[in-house]
UniProtKB/TrEMBL annotation:
Residues 100-281 form the FAD-binding PCMH-type domain. It holds the Pfam family FAD_binding_4. The keyword ATP-binding does not apply. This is FAD-binding oxidoreductase. SUPFAM superfamilies: FAD-binding/transporter-associated domain-like, FAD-linked oxidases, C-terminal domain. Belongs to the FAD-binding oxidoreductase/transferase type 4 family. The keyword Flavoprotein applies. It comes from the Bacteria. PROSITE patterns: FAD_PCMH.
Length: 538
């Protein structure tokens, strides 16, 4: 049994692997020259980063070696450089401009929960900060090798925790270790006829532990639920001991402590395995494109489907700019309006029933069917985008995204305001701000903004920090969340007090003080420090 996520067959699109041909087509090249006056042919490759000397001295290194074995304490340059930071625009830009943060002093690869406990004990004893590292796809500074006040810092790479521990077909749950990547987890489940069906755009590299630690959302989150909603049970190792949470599918035994670990971003401990709900590999997948007259009309249709049903599993509405960008890069005839994608996956009869009802609803409200091809082309492009971004950065383009969620009542105003603030902040750099709505809830939805502009020649880092701050302040003022699924990392820490209030920050600090009394776990991430600021504000 196989499972098809429509990852492009072409290996150059496998973002983890180096490309064997450029993804900037002649049409995209012309567009970039015309809109941004940049020349993709002038793109330069990112220089290799050479990390400085490791600070891990004899006894500290010996303690780590005793915990996991010498072969799994990597002190050599290449793995250390690769674990210095994540995949935000600023992470990639800093690597290109030789301003990458210091690499971790070692990359440590434990095999299981016992070894993780031994590593954490060694780190507390030897004054070493620990950055849990899954796929390293954080776009908010979540895996930056921040040493904080400690003598050294390690990246704790969970790649060796890569097993499907158990498939319980009666309860329809699977217990997956934290280091499994999305494709590998799906491969193991598909061999038994099941799927997790969690497909974020970072699917090729992101891990089960990363999904849990950041409360990730995938392309089917509207229908199948975001990752945190799929978790029935989890195990974690903290400096204060092990946690085993989620005994039953429902409980009234106090607050749900799984939620303390879901979204904890490595600041409390290490998630070692999760038990998640799975489903049989869908018999049928039907994803379709529709054209609606405007973003406002599309929002009304999506809200009706989200609130009154039939709610599709995939629901995604591009605004006018994002639709036009897609049309222009694909070389299709420009049409007015906005692209709406709807999709269903599951048993054939169920998909037909739900899809037919939604189709009738959309037709009744004047939407035009574009067929399955439009959705297939989106799926392919979706997984090419990260590779394309790498190429565009080298050509002098600013390419970044930011996301939020907001109630329906405020959604259209927020869409307009964030666009205006970003364009004003990037004035003079030919900014283009595109947006789509996805991850639909009864009370609201997520908005995802993509920003393209010319890079500032003198200080491109400050250029984006200025724009990001303007957009983030707009989210805070509007009562929207600072992040719907990218998480807090270091970059969103300055907005956490607005997000959860002083008492909320106090609660997070109290949990950290209990589970991580020495503060070795991922310093500078998630929680504002005592002075109210992150260690690395954007
Ligand atoms: C191109 C691109 C597209 C993206 N698309 C999406 C998307 O569609 N949806 C979405 O939700 N996100 C998306 N992201 C963001 C990112 O992929 C997610 O946050 C993902 O869940 C991170 O998984 P990871 O394994 O790479 O975690 P990492 O980046 O390695 O870590 C993320 C955070 O979790 C912590 N962590 C990792 N593993 C563990 C663990 N086992 N225990 C405790 N803490 C841990 C880290 O310390 C860090 O703070 C995207 C990122 C990129 C670069």
């Amino acid at each position: 049994m196989t499972v098809d996520f429509s990852l492009p067959a072409d290996p150059a699109s496998a973002w983890a692997a180096p490309p064997d041909h450029p993804l900037v087509t002649p049409r995209v090249r012309d567009l970039l020259a015309q809109v941004f006056d940049v020349d993709p042919d002038a793109a330069t490759a990112a220089p290799a980063t050479v990390p400085g000397q490791s600070r891990l001295a004899g006894p500290a290194r010996d303690a780590l070696v005793a915990a996991v074995g010498a072969a799994h304490v990597r002190l050599d340059a290449e793995p250390r450089a690769a674990h210095a930071n994540g995949m935000s625009y600023l992470d990639l830009l800093r690597r290109r401009t030789g301003q990458a943060p210091a690499a971790p002093d070692a990359v440590v690869l434990p095999a299981d929960a016992d070894e993780i406990a031994a590593v954490l004990t060694a780190c507390v004893q030897h004054d070493i900060a620990v950055v849990p590292f899954g796929g390293g796809t954080s776009v908010v500074g979540g895996v930056t090798a921040e040493r904080g006040p400690f003598a050294a810092v390690i990246a704790l790479d969970l790649a060796r925790l890569d097993r499907l521990v158990e498939l319980d077909e009666i309860s329809r749950t699977a217990t997956l270790q934290a280091g499994l990547t999305g494709p590998r987890a799906e491969e193991l489940l598909a061999a038994r006829g099941y799927t997790l069906g969690h497909v974020p755009q970072s699917f090729e590299r992101a891990t089960i532990g990363g999904y849990a630690a950041t409360r990730s959302a995938g392309q089917l989150s509207t229908g199948w639920g975001r990752f945190d909603a799929l978790v029935e049970h989890l195990r974690a190792v903290t400096p204060a001991g092990a946690l085993d949470l989620g005994r039953a599918p429902g409980t009234a035994a106090g607050p749900d402590l799984r939620q303390v670990l879901l979204g904890s971003e490595g600041a409390f401990g290490v998630i070692t395995e999760v038990t998640v709900r799975v489903r049989p590999v869908p018999e049928v997948r039907r994803h379709e494109g529709w054209r609606v007259a405007s973003f406002a009309e599309g929002v009304a249709l999506v809200r009706a489907l989200g609130q009154d049903g039939p709610r599709p599993d995939l629901l995604r509405l591009s605004d006018e700019t994002e639709t036009a960008l897609g049309v222009a890069t694909a070389g299709e005839e420009a049409g007015d309006g906005c692209l709406l994608l709807v999709g269903w996956e599951g048993a054939a009869e169920d998909v037909t029933r739900r899809a037919d009802a939604a189709t009738a609803f959309l037709r009744r409200h004047g939407a035009t069917a574009l067929g399955e091809e439009a959705a297939a082309s989106w799926r392919t492009g979706r997984f090419r985008a990260p590779r394309l971004r790498d190429e565009l950065l080298g050509a002098g383009l600013l390419v970044e995204t930011l996301e939020t969620a907001v109630r329906w009542r405020d959604l259209e105003t927020l869409h307009a305001t964030v666009g205006e603030r970003l364009r004003a902040a990037l004035d003079g750099a030919r900014p283009v701000v595109a947006c789509h709505l996805s991850h639909v809830y009864p009370a609201g939805a997520s908005l995802y903004f993509s920003v393209l502009a010319r890079q500032d020649e003198h200080d491109p880092v400050a250029q984006w920090q200025h724009a990001k701050r303007a957009a983030s302040d707009a989210l805070a003022e509007a009562g929207a969340t600072i992040t719907h699924h990218h998480a807090v990392g270091a970059d969103h820490v300055p907005w956490m007090t607005t997000e959860v209030g002083d008492a909320g920050v106090g609660l997070l600090r109290a949990v950290k003080a209990h589970l991580d009394p020495h503060g070795v776990m991922n310093p500078g991430k998630l929680i504002p420090d005592a002075a109210g600021a992150g260690l690395r504000a954007t």
